[in-house]
Structure formats: structure tokens, C-alpha cells
Amino acid sequence: MNWEIVIGLETHVELATQSKVFCGCSTAFGAPPNTLCCPVCLGLPGALPVLNKQAVELSVKAALALNCTVTPVSRFDRKNYFYPDLPKAYQISQLYAPLARNGQVELPGGKQVHIRELHLEEDAGKLHHSDDHTAIDYNRCGVPLVEIVTAPDLASGEEAVAYLEQLRSTLQYLGVSDCRMEQGSLRCDVNLSVRPAGCSELGTRTELKNLGSLRAVRLACEYEAQRQIAILESGGQVRCQTCRWDEDARRTVPMRDKEQVGDYRYFPDPDLPPLVIGDDLLTRLRREQPELAHEKCRRYAHDWQLSEYDCSILTAQRGLADYFERVVALGAPPKQAANWIMGQVLRRVSADGLEVEQIPMTAHALASLIRLVEDETINRNTAVEVFDATFTGGDPVEYVQAHHLEQTDNVEQVSTVVEEILAQNRKSVEDWLAGKEKAAGFLVGQAMRALGGRAKPALVGDLVRQLLERERS
Amino acid sequence: MNQLFEMTALELACAIARGEVLRDDAIHAALAACTAHGKQLNTFISLTSAAQPDQSVSPLSGVPMAVKDNICMTRSRTTCASRMLEHFVSPYTATAAEKLLSAGAFCVGKTNMDEFAIGSTSETSYFGPVKNPWNPEYSPGGSSGGSAAAVASGQVWYALGSDTGGSIRHPAACCGVTGMKPTYGSVSRYGLVSYASSFDQIGPIARDAADCAAVLDIIRGHDERDSTSLPGPYLPLSPQLTGEMRGIRIGIPDVYFDQRVDEPTRRALLTCADALRERGAVVEPCHADGLENAVHAYYVLACAQASSNLARYDGVRYGCRGSDAHDVQELFAHSRSLGFGREVKRRILLGTHLLSGENYETYYRKSVAVRQQVEDTFRALWQNYDLLLTPVLPAPPPKLGQEVNDPVALYHEDRYVACANLAGLPALSMPCGLRDEGLPIGAQLIGPRMSDGTLLNAAFSFQQETDWHRRHPPIFGLGGDAT
User: Fold this and answer.
1) pLDDT in tens, B326-341
2) Is there a contact between B53 and B106 (Cβ–Cβ < 8 Å)?
3) Cis preceding-peptide flag for B396 (omega within 30 of 0)
């Protein structure tokens, strides 16, 4: 029996706002517990929510970039349930009239993933469990989240990861979120079911939680699909439940029956007026939308004939793409700039533990280094030496001059050496005169060696040819 | 000393400003009255320590007042008359209270009330019932019973109450004082412990309309911290109290003047209508379809919102925490079972039920539609009338301990007042009579949104013509003793 895997994803993304969604507390990560709180996000008696405009803008930016239709008048609803990390015992979310609907994401390869909805809501606090007690940190409570729900369009763990990578790239490019799974600013829950290939009905699904990395998403999908297939193939039924992904054991573990989750008793939050998104805002945000990764890829390939591989590396992070484009704008040939960035720059970024936004070598410096190689002032080996020396600061041109690293273009000096080489290698000269082209190359190489590699190859080549021609006559 | 008590808040503030009365004397008088009546009437939950009031100048500077104990203040507990918040001290002060303090008000203490403002008798308080100053065997009405009783007995010159389904107007009527619920959104709810967010409003309870206007002029206004706060403009109310009523048309809706209204109330209301006519207003019966279901829709929506607003009291961060819990669910259940009284539990369970599953459509959404109908009905009435005149309650307040076992009967009595909350309209109660057994009767005036000035002017005008608002219960002030 052939089986089809059907996956839908619910992704929560923390918005990169300065303050929380309904109060002015900071959203900074890593502060001491319960230091970024106020009566509003703690749900103290009498406190009331006030909507953060920046959170709305970032949500709308995300919605537009994901090709969604923005709801002109959306509303906030209360999702009521009891849990210690939820101070008001309800979460302000959007159910009946979410901010945006019906978007899509295109995966590499062309597959369209339909986005059912995108809405704004507030985050809960964090529980820290110990042996004999649980501590609660409310710093995260009230941080703005955008929830993005796909249709069950994904067919494998790989596709799920491809979707998440695309989503992450888009949201990072927009500055909507830093989308770091390890910090919790991107969280993903998977809804997965299986069905016989070709069948149109959906099977019973399970919900997978606690996926801390893209790798975990892929592994969990693969595991759960196999688990469900095994059950069905042996004649059993899949139970509708929520499962936790156990990273160490590499398996899914049931958390609770989905039926028991209960009724959230959603109703419109009477403390907040309807959220009106005007055409002015939409027009401005559309206009301000930056070029996204896949758009850059297309442009790099079309304008500069860069390979798909090169494009994908360069556009993986907006900071790197911006850097690359600045270097090219300063006159560096795109291919050269790409090579230097993908090679030497990323090597140092990794070795020095940097973010791409922290590359200390200015675009100007890299561009001038590339120019030095292009006009043969220095050769490639020397260039790498100069790069390493000036990566953290300093001007490559000055460095080359100060250390006398230039390849000489002094015709007299080079001629003298070439004459000596020709004199010392009469056999090769004879060979060349007899028609062996390779002999010229050999003579150039010898001359270069004699010059310690510090001469413009073109000049050496020209002079060798000239002197050889003189021999002929 | 008794002269002090006879003054209204505005008169006292003037006397203080002119140096005829010292601020401290007024404070001592207030505290003396509190001591004299405190235990007997049980009006206060906390008395604040005698901190010096702000020296700022306003029409109410230096006047002792009280604040209902569901309005947060940093200088005292805010208990909401509940075991759940018995020891709770808020880290911030409500906007409305803050404005009064900045205007030189002196807060004597936090007044007793129905638990979490849920009730109309002020009997459901964890700290014991409030007693009616006119006859302590009777309820003072609710839920702002403590505030109304404190004003009626002369313990303070005015007080803040809150009104969700009549909780300012009802006790004002039962205690023979003037109380007003302003237009929804005109007084910030920031710091008012939420019961039903769509209906809650803070408002003044005072000796007369002029005092109410003076208080409202201070506490009204847009507040960024309350997203339901109206932007304005807010024209001062006090200058609108001219006493001029010619050209004002007042309707008496037949639905609120039916056979359920008892004879004394009916007579008092008709006399009130006559007095308003004397002042130049046209007062006539009117017909309005679409108000009969207002109180039902009110209760559905209020219970539902209450069940959500009171869910935060779970014993985790503050408040009453139950013991012997083995897991989190038990912790919640024990804390809330211990912390809440019967009526609060009843409303929470009702509200939870009304929001569950299909009931949301059947009850909540339907009530939202009824609410819209009620607003439409009022809008049609405002085509022909500037104000409406109705009873506040159809009968005397119950004797303490009497009707606690029949909650639905009590709910029905709210039909006269709850409609104004449902439609967000300003409404006030003013004393207009006394029963044979010595209990006051109140008349309600309702107006369109932002007609608070017109409303207060009508009450002011009525109070030029009559003296019900100057009648006091026997224990008023220091019980009639000279200093």
C-alpha cells in the first residue's frame, strides 16, 4: 500500500517590536525573571490592554509579503483557559475575524503552500520546572506573536522544512522577526495525518509539539508518519492526540487526548475596539516592502549570471545580501564579489563567531581588495594574506603599499630577468622556435619564480613573447 | 460642627477655600462620623491613614470623600469585598481616583460593596452587609451600598461608586442621595476591577446634582490607558447647570411604568414629573417597543464577561490561595472555591455556561443582537425626547437577609436601570420621595450619549424645586448632637 503524508503547520513568530503587544514593557530576551512586567501584562485587577501600533504594522507587513488578503476590520477575541503562565486566564487572540487570510508561499521547485490565516495574539509566560516546585517568569507574557496557519498542503518532513526556511527568510528580510528557533522567536507545531495514496479524505491527525529546530521538525514528521502508517497497516486506528517530540529518544510521546482540551469559550474582547487597517497603511507598507530573497535570487541570476547555488548562499541572510550588493555597487565584478564573500568572508564570520550584520570589513574595503586583484597589483595568494590582515580593520591598499606587496610593472626590471631566463633556458627557446607553444608558458613560469611571484603576470607574459619574437628574427 | 455636615461638597470646598473652615476640621469631622457610624452601618472596609491631601486648588479641594473598594488605590487594600482579595494592595492607583487626589480630594477610606460588584443589596460582601442609614434592618441597595450609605449618613461628602447594571443608581435611590452613571467611555476604567467590561463605569454619589457635576468634571476625560475611553471633546458640566428646563421634553416609557411598580414609587414619580413641569419641561408618557428584553440581554452579556474577567483570580500570583492542592487544577479549584462567595460563583458558572459550545450562538450572540435593538429603540426615542424619566426600583429595597434565596427575582428588578448600561447611556438617580416606613424613593433620568450635562441640569433644576435631597436619616452627621 502506498501512503500519502499530509502535513499542516501552525507557526508562532515573535514580532521584533520594542515593547509588548498590549503594554509598554520591553520585549528584550534574557532579562532577569519578572523584571519586564507591569499591571497590564501581569493581568492585575483593573488593568486594561492598549494595542501596540508597531505590532500591527509588522503583522500587516508579514501578511502582505505572504500574499495574504488583509481583513480591513479585524477583531480581538478572548481565548479562555486556566494555566499558571496565563495571568488573565485568557489569551487575547483573534478567532472570528483574523488580521489576514488566504496567502501563499512558493517552495523552491514551484510548489504552492496555501496559508489559511495569519493573526495577532499575545504570548504567555514561561514555566521552569524543578523537582519540588515550578517557577513562573512573566517576562515573555504579552510579547506579540503572529500565528501563521497553513492548509494541509505539505507532503513530507523535507517540504515542511523548506516551507519554514522560506517563511523564516521572508520574515527576517522584512525585519518582522529574527525567527530564531533556539530562542523561541519561531515556534512550530505540526499537524500530521496519513492516507492511502490517491485518497481524498483526510486521516485522523495528531499534533506534534516541542520542536526546537528545523531538524527536529523533519525527524518528527518522518517518525510520526511511520508510526501512523504502522498502526493503520496493522489494522488499528490512529488516536487524535497531541504528542511531544522527545529529542533524545527521537520519538513522539502522547501528551493528552485532543478531546480533553475543551472549549475555549471564545468571545470578542470588550476591552479593545475593532482593528481597522486603512488603505493608506496598506499602500505605504506595500511600497516599503524590501526585495525578498527569492526575488534577489532571480535578479542575481538574470543580471549577473550567478548560479542557483551561489544565489542561495548569498541571499540566505538579508545582511549578507545587502553586503554583497554594496560591494558590487562599488565596482567589484559580481562573480568575484560572490566568491570572496562565500569563501573568505564567511570563513572568517564563522571562525570569529560573528553575525553577518557584524562583518567588520567594509564593503568599500572588500571592493578595493578585489580591484587590486583584478588589475593585478597583487596576486591571489597575496590577496588572501591582505584580506586576513585587514578583515577587522585597515585599508587593503595602504596595507599593500606599506608591505611592498605590489606586483611590479617595472618593464626594465622584468626585461632584465626575462633575458636572464631566456639565456639560462636555451633549450626551451629552441623548442618554442620549433613550434612548441608550451615552452613559452614554461619560460613565463620560470620568470615569475625568479621574480618571487611579484610581477604582473600579463607583463611577464608580454615580455617573454617579445623577447622570443626577437629570437626568431 | 453640624453645619459642616449640612454643607454640600461644593459648599464645603468654598468654605475651605475662603478660610472659614480648616481642611483638618473637615477631615476630623469625617473621621468622627466614620467612627460613630462605622460599625453600625459597616460602610467601610478600610479606613486610610490621615495623609495630608494635595494642596492643589479645584472646586472640590480639601473635601473628604470615599472610594468604592473595587477601585484600585495604592494607599490601601483593594478587596472588592471578597476573601479572594482580602489582603491585596494594588501597585497602582486608578485614573479616576488619581484625578481626584490630584484635585485635592481627601480619601477617608474604601467602601463596602457587593462582592466584585455583583449584586444589588450589598449583602454579598465577605466583610458583612452594609446597612441602610435610614433603617438598618434594610439593605442600602447595591452594589455600591457602602458609598451611598457613607454619603447619606454624612461620613463623607461624596464618594465614587461603579455601575454595571445599576450599581450606582440603585443604592443612591435606596439611600436618598444623588448618583450618576456617566456616558460609557467618558470616565476611564483603568484601575476599576472589571466585572462586565462593556458596561462598567465609575461615577459619583453625592448630596446633589451640582456635587455630582463637580466630581464628574474632574474624573471625566480621555485616558490612553483605557482603549474604550472616548476621545472627547469633554465640555465642562458644571456651567451647564443653569436650572433652565423650558423646551426640554421628557418621556416616561410605559414599559417601565407598569403594574410591577408599587404605589408609593408611582406616586413619587408622578410628583417628580409635576415638579419638572413646574420648571418648564414637557413631561409625558411614551411608548417604546424593544426594551422588554434589555435586562435579559444584560444578564447574559454581563455574566459571560464576568466569568472571563474573574478568571484571573486563581491563587497563583496574588490573592487567596487554597491549600492541599496536588496539582495545578486543584490549586485553581481550591483557591476559587475558598475565595469567592455564592453569588459570584453563581454568576461565573452561569457566564461559563452561556459561552460554552453552542450556547455562544444561542445566548451570547443573540443578546448582542438584542443589545443592538435596545440601542435602536433608544435612538428612536431621542427623536422625540431629550430625556426619559423612570423609577429606579419598583419597590422598597429588601430587608437584609430577605431575598438572597431568590436571585432571579432580584435580577428582574434591574430592568429599569440595566437598559442604560446596555446602551452606554448616561443615567442618574435623584431622591424624589420617602416611604411611610422612612425609606427613600429615587427617580431615574436617562439621556442620549454625551448628554450628561442635560441630565445633570434636569436633576439640578428638580433640586431647585424640591428638598428631598436635603433630607437626612436620623443618624446623619453625628446623630444630631452638637459638637
Assistant:
1) 888 999 999 999 999 9
2) yes
3) no
| Tens-place pLDDT, residues A374-409 | 988 888 888 999 999 999 999 999 999 998 888 887
Judge residue B261's burial from the number of C-beta atoms within 10 Å of its C-beta, 0-12 exposed, 13-18 middle, 19 or more buried. Answer: middle
Report the pLDDT averaged over residues B301-315.
98
Using an 8 Å CB-CB cutoff, list chain A residues near B311.
80, 82, 88-90
What is the spatial distance between Cα A311 and Cα A305, in angstroms, rounded to a whole number?
10
* CA B151 – CA B132 distance, rounded (Å): 11
Looking at residue A259, what is its pLDDT?
Answer: 42
Grid cell for residue A192: 500530521
Please tell me the distance from the alpha carbon of residue B124 to that of residue A299, in angstroms, as a whole number: 72
Judge whether B399 counts as a catalytic residue: no
Residue type, B12: L
Distances (CA, A) of A59 to A64, A116, B66, B457: 9, 15, 45, 48
Q: Looking at chain B, which residue has its C-alpha nearest residue A43?
A: B312
Assess A266–B contact: CB distance below 8 Å, yes or no. yes
DSSP state of A235: T
**Could you count the other beta carbons within 10 Å of the beta carbon of residue B437?**
11
The interface predicted TM-score of the complex, written ipTM, equals 0.95
Residue of A nearest to B317 (CA): A87
- B337 touching A (Cβ < 8 Å): no
Q: A248 in contact with B at a CB cutoff of 8 Å?
A: no
Ramachandran angles phi, psi of B366, nearest 5° = -65, -40
Q: What pLDDT shows up at residue A408?
A: 80
Q: In angstroms, rounded to a whole number, what is the distance separating the alpha carbons of residues B338 and B331?
A: 11
Partner-chain contact B94 A46, CB within 8 Å: yes
Interface check for A45 against chain B (CB to CB < 8 A): the answer is yes
Find the catalytic residue in B58, B68, B238, B451.
B68
Q: Is A53 on the interface with B (CB under 8 A)?
A: no
**How, if at all, do strands A73-74 and A241-246 pair?**
unpaired
- Which amino acid, A169? S
* Phi/psi of residue B241, nearest 5 degrees: -85, 80
Compute the distance between CA of residue A340 and CA of residue A357 in angstroms, rounded to an integer. Answer: 17
Over residues B441-482, the pLDDT tens digits come to 999 999 999 999 999 999 999 999 999 999 999 989 876 443
Taking the C-alpha atoms of residue B253 and residue B446, their distance in angstroms, rounded to an integer, is: 11
Amino acid at A87: P
The chain-wide mean pLDDT, for chain A, equals 93
**Residues on chain A touching B312 (C-beta within 8 angstroms):** 43, 45, 87-89
Question: Is the separation of the CB atoms in B362 and B228 below 8 Å?
Answer: no
Summarize the confidence of residues B383-406 as an average pLDDT: 89
How far is the CA of B76 from the CAs of A48, B46, B128, B200, in angstroms? 21, 7, 19, 22
CA distance A140 to chain B (A): 16
DSSP secondary structure of A279-295: HHHHHHHHHHPPPPHHH
Contacts of A46 in chain B (CB under 8 A): 71-72, 78, 90, 94, 189-194
**B216 Cβ contact list (under 8 Å, min separation 6):** B180, B182, B187, B203, B204, B237, B452, B456
Whether B68 is a known active-site residue: answer yes
Q: What pTM was computed for the model?
A: 0.89
- Pick from A45, A83, A271: CB nearest B72: A45
Asked if B371 reaches chain A (Cβ–Cβ under 8 Å), the answer is: no
Instruction: With beta carbons under 8 A apart, name residues in chain A contacting B318.
Output: 44
**Rounded Cα distance, B190 and B97, in Å:** 10
Q: Kindly state the DSSP code that residue A434 receives in the 8-state scheme.
A: T
| From B46, B76, B162, B167, the catalytic residue | B167
Does the bond joining A213 to the residue before it have cis omega, within 30 degrees of 0? no
Identity of the residue in B80, B189, B318 whose CB atom sits nearest the CB atom of A48 = B189
Residue A262 sits at the chain B interface (C-beta within 8 Å): no
